[in-house]
Amino acid sequence: MALAPPTIGVFDSGFGGLTVLRELLPIMAGAHFVYLGDTARLPYGAKSRETIARYAVSSGAFLLAQGAELLVVACNTASALALDELKAALPIPVIGVIAPGAAAAALHPGPCSLHPSVLVLATAATVQSHAYFRACAALGLQAYEKACPLLVPLVEEGWIDHPVTAEVLRIYLSEALAEAPTVTTLVLGCTHYPLLKPLIERTLAELNHPLQIVDAAHAAAHAAAALIPPSESTAPPTCSFYATDSIEKFQRLGSAFLGQPLPEVRLIDLGG
Amino acid sequence: MALAPPTIGVFDSGFGGLTVLRELLPIMAGAHFVYLGDTARLPYGAKSRETIARYAVSSGAFLLAQGAELLVVACNTASALALDELKAALPIPVIGVIAPGAAAAALHPGPCSLHPSVLVLATAATVQSHAYFRACAALGLQAYEKACPLLVPLVEEGWIDHPVTAEVLRIYLSEALAEAPTVTTLVLGCTHYPLLKPLIERTLAELNHPLQIVDAAHAAAHAAAALIPPSESTAPPTCSFYATDSIEKFQRLGSAFLGQPLPEVRLIDLGG
């Protein structure tokens, strides 16, 4: 008898986590995904740890009520600041993006453990939490974290392959490589950044400093898939999408993040 | 007998409204200002009209409880979407930034009323509301509204006078002037934009298309001052600052917006 198809909850403060879902779809045939973007309360980055934990737990509880047997926290801020609270509050496995991102970086050890071997690009909030620094340190890696506050707005403006974005990347990467010239691996520590991977690779080549690029979204998807028993199904996975407010931007930009057209997004109210 | 010094509430979703307070301070000797940045719930721009009105009314009620006799809504989004609700909910005069900005633009009539004479630069949310378009139309002016989503992040990155910001402005202004070549006046329709005024003037000169620049923050401050009886006091105004979350960024960037060092910011909880 075939196992029932697993239901997997994927949660982000917005639509950035669709880059994690994009990585999950090709490796989890037969699964049903329920995606929640807590758009009414984004961005989580500027908010306090207590507030973020409260928002994340209410989002997780919604996905549990939709039948989720596993929760993927496809949001760096919530992974950095609310993973313990989510694990304590929910009776299902919870996986974030930061530990898998650090573990993937550890597959590419640097030349020397006394100097940083890992460069993490992330939002200001994720850098301030130093969650990647700690996750890397737990694996014996030194990380240098670089806040890149303009990259999310540039991606959301649609300037994925644009001279301005190239110049901003050149500035951020030059500053980071001046501070941490020993790095050999770069972690994309924000769910928006996979869309910039080609431009980041090109900029690093122009700076004559190629790095091994680790996509935390990709790493998290594979870590999540490893927690689910392999399915006998070969049916394409199915998805439901929910947002807490303002689904227009979600619809408009989401398909670029998901890599395919985005079907109906349903509006729900989690209060607050 | 001297009148008691007036207490004036100034409200924004963040610290951008400090550019309005900056314009109020030199023209209102003797006044006491209470500034509230609703940082726990920013940005308002991505949220629905109902949610923004609820947030704005609770912020206005807090300032009323602090003794405000006049409320200055130093926030384009709240001015666009919640001014009527604020006026209905509060027993004091309420003034926003949009009507004064449009009125200031009307002081510089264009050559022809059949084509746009006013270019409004604003956030995507303010443009989507078309509040400036309507406020200008009520004064017989045609406005062309241009969304400039990268300018707030660039200002918050501190890149006020930076080649990347100059290039972004050149792109936005070129696009707007191609769509609306007849404009003669430019309205800074976001409280962050006064910090970019010198760079905007330089970019317009390079594009060989100088425009009369109207600062909605400046116009709103003068409209607010006109509602308060002239004070006999020559004492410098005093200020109290409140925020609902995350005062670190407020403290760090606020002094650039206020044009002077920012004293203590007190954290308050408005719920939500």
Q: Shape of chain A from CA axes?
A: globular
Total strand count of chain A, please?
Answer: 10
Q: Mean pLDDT score of chain A, rounded? A: 91
Give the count of helical stretches of chain A. 11
Widest beta sheet: strand line-up of chain A = 4-3-1-2-9-10
* Beta-strand fraction estimate of chain A: 15-25%
Bin the helical content of chain A: 40-55%
Q: In angstroms, what separates the terminal alpha carbons of chain A?
A: 44 Å
Q: Roughly how many Å is the radius of gyration of chain A?
A: 18 Å
Spell the H/E element sequence of chain A. Answer: EHEHEHEHEHHEHHEHEHEHE
Secondary structure class of chain A reads alpha/beta
Which spans of chain A have pLDDT < 50 for at least 5 consecutive residues?
none
Largest sheet of chain A: 6 strands, parallel
Biggest chain contact: A-B, 24 and 24 residues
> What's the assembly state of these chains?
homodimer
